[in-house]
Specification:
11-stranded mixed β-sheet, Lipoxygenase-1, 2 domains
Length: about 400
């Protein structure tokens, strides 16, 4: 049976792989910091957040984001010099902690709640919160429920833990030459596509080698595979599949998806490749699609879509998030948050070639299957039942 802690309380945890889960009524950004005895990070990848989702040794992973965020922490794999792992939350769009309406952090062991920590949000007007921390004490690991507020958001919070943040000067200021810093500053920028702000236009990075175009464009789909833990969680697990429609400037078109084993090819047409499909639903990083940005001048558009291959269609409960990662660009994300949509397919985003620039547009449109989606966008494929 799970133990409930009050703020300031602590409890022992087994030295194994834990899941730290943060739930709120409103989507928010979570972060984690691997800390030495002085309470500071040692390296850039000790700071795990939406722009850097894993440490180099993979002992700390950001698994899911949004209203149901989670981290995987392999305590036995953490380097001996690291004494703490702190977990934080910052509301989106500059809101206060109180705007989250409900908030909790919990520790899960083998898929079951172990420690539960509900946060009292009454009067919490801070811009960020240190929720809790795992820490070593006499050779054993414990979890402390902290609930300590921070004003100023993620940047001062990260700087408090010793992270160097990239803060560009105002546009009107003239650049001043400076010596190369000891560590490359971390950029906290992120683009979230919403109904109110549905698109963003990108130009080719200036620092990539000639002929590389936009470089490797990585598309990640991650989701909450089930609403609970244990046996019934496995029975009700949701399996989402990521796919892409590709249309070239010469009129050629193709489809990339696990269904029918159409995994594509990165180096050759269609220049889009789906990494191995997670048929078990156990992969912590979700599914990945790679687009060869060096060939972007040949491509007219790419439509990213997902469909529920297994499980009851309810996109709101998947907490799905799609993130685009491009060289020298902030991560671009969009959430699959249709309220109770019972359709099995979602057209997530369109990547469109506009005079060899890249326009990313949020679609968030839901359909009953491949054929209705095809009809809506005029692709013209002939469809038949398939399996994987």
């Amino acid at each position: 049976m799970a133990t409930q802690l009050i703020a300031g309380g602590n409890g022992p945890v087994p030295e194994t792989t834990l899941v730290i889960r943060v739930k709120s009524a409103v989507a928010a950004d979570v972060s984690a910091f691997r800390l030495e005895a002085n309470g500071k990070t040692q390296a850039d990848d000790d700071f795990i957040f939406y722009g850097q989702k894993q440490s180099h040794d993979r002992s700390l992973l950001l698994l899911t984001e949004g209203e149901n965020s989670s981290f995987s922490v392999n305590l036995s794999a953490l380097p001996a010099n690291l004494q703490k792992v702190a977990f934080t939350i910052t509301p989106e769009s500059g809101n206060t902690i109180q705007s989250l309406r409900t908030l909790s952090i919990s520790v899960e062991v083998s898929g079951q709640p172990y420690l539960i920590c509900p946060v009292d949000l009454a009067g919490r007007n801070e811009a960020a919160l240190i929720l809790g921390e795992l820490y070593r004490r006499n050779g054993e690991w414990k979890f402390r429920f902290v609930a300590q507020g921070f004003n100023g958001g993620l940047q001062p919070l990260a700087e408090h833990f010793g992270v160097t943040i990239d803060a560009p000067p105002p546009e009107e200021a003239k650049p001043v030459p400076a010596p190369e810093p000891a560590a490359k500053p971390i950029n906290l920028s992120k683009v979230t596509l919403t109904k109110e702000q549905p698109s963003v236009n990108l130009t080719k990075p200036v620092n990539l080698s000639k002929g590389q175009g936009f470089g490797r464009i990585r598309v990640n789909l991650n989701w909450n595979r089930a609403s609970g833990g244990g046996f019934f969680s496995k029975l009700n697990a949701i399996d989402l599949d990521l796919g892409a429609y590709v249309r070239f400037k010469d009129g050629h078109q193709d489809l990339v998806q696990a269904l029918g084993n159409r995994f594509g090819d990165y180096q050759h047409v269609p220049y889009v490749h789906l990494e191995a499909d997670d048929r078990t639903g156990s992969a912590s990083e979700g599914e990945w699609l790679n687009i060869n940005g060096a060939k972007w001048d040949d491509i007219a558009e790419v439509v990213i879509f997902a469909f529920i291959y297994k499980g009851v269609p309810n996109w709101a409960k998947t907490d799905g998030v799609v993130t685009l990662q491009l060289p020298e660009q902030p991560p671009i994300e969009t959430r699959l948050n249709a309220d109770g949509s019972s359709q099995s397919m979602c057209a997530i985003a369109r990547l469109e070639n506009i005079n060899n620039t890249l326009k990313v547009e949020r679609l968030n449109a839901y359909f009953g299957g491949h054929e209705p989606m095809d009809k809506a966008y005029g692709w013209g494929f002939n469809w038949r039942s398939g399996s994987k």
